[in-house]
Amino acid sequence: MALSSLIVYEPLDALSENRDYWSEYISFYEQYWGGPTSPYGVWFGTEYNNFRNSLSKHLEIDEEDIVDCFFMKDKEGKHYISPFSSEMNSYFLHSENYIPLHWFLLFKHDEGEFFYTPWGFGGINYDTKINLGFQRLKEADEIIKGTLQEHKETRFKFPILHKLGEIQAGIDSLKAWLGGFDPTGYVVLSYGEICSFIHPYTIKNERSVNEIWQILYLIKEDRFEEAQSVLSIIVEKWEDIRRKASGDIDKFTIQ
């Protein structure tokens, strides 16, 4: 099994609860490790236990009362955090063995970053402001709704229109989830372990974000056959990745 994730980071100064705790946590973590946390961080040996022991002494609380988080810092030095547990909405969405197509609609291609993980395989992250992601979901939703409404009498003539309905349902769920967070925060797409099942020679050319937007813009122009062709490629690509990640390797079509 391989997990991909959407992760929300809220501004530290926008939190109404436990702000002092998180401020102390971040300050200690940066002094202890020399930088922010990362979903790709690796703990060796007893490092994590030693860190938690030191942190509990610094915060003057028992180790079992420690709550961890991911955090990041923008160019102005402002901190954003993603707590591992909270009474609010979960800060994480996970997907097993593939990435849902509607997740890509939050981003534009130039917001992606390729890097090498501590395990040696390539990694991909996208990040954007929540309010920008929301605007893109709204744009995609308007395109899909307009198309389905215009072609409601002939929607079964074009297979792609059924897929658009599925994507629209995903958009609605994302909007509901993101609506629970500060719009000035960040949303990050981490390909996570999925990257280890993408061929190392093709991973730098992974352009699902571009492809999903290309489909919508073609649909907007009623270029259904071209849109269906692009959709077939992206669906086939992620179905192959899903089979590899889940261990169903009887048939691969992507080389």
Report on the structure:
This protein has 255 residues and is α+β, with helices and mostly antiparallel strands. It has one domain (3-246). The chain is built from six helices and seven strands. The protein has helices spanning 19-33, 47-59, 130-150, 159-178, 208-220, 224-246, and strands at 3-11, 69-73, 79-83, 92-96, 112-116, 122-129, 186-190. Strands 1, 2, 3, 4, 5, 6 and 7 form a seven-stranded antiparallel beta sheet that branches. A hairpin with a 5-residue loop joins strand 5 (112-116) and strand 6 (122-129). Helix 1 crosses helix 2, helix 3 packs antiparallel against helix 4 (159-178) and helix 5 (208-220) runs antiparallel to helix 6 (224-246). The protein starts with a strand and ends in a 9-residue tail after the last helix. Mean pLDDT is 89; it is low at 251-255.
Structure summarized in a few sentences:
With 255 residues, the protein is α+β, with helices and mostly antiparallel strands. The protein has helices spanning 19-33, 47-59, 130-150, 159-178, 208-220, 224-246; strands at 3-11, 69-73, 79-83, 92-96, 112-116, 122-129, 186-190.
Distinctive features:
7-stranded antiparallel β-sheet, disordered C terminus, alpha+beta, single chain, 255 residues, 6 helices
Any chance you could write out the topology, listing elements then pairs?
Elements: E1 3-11, H1 19-33, H2 47-59, E2 69-73, E3 79-83, E4 92-96, E5 112-116, E6 122-129, H3 130-150, H4 159-178, E7 186-190, H5 208-220, H6 224-246
Antiparallel strand pairs: 1-3, 1-4, 1-7, 2-3, 5-6, 6-7
Helix pairs in contact: 1-2, 3-4, 3-5, 5-6
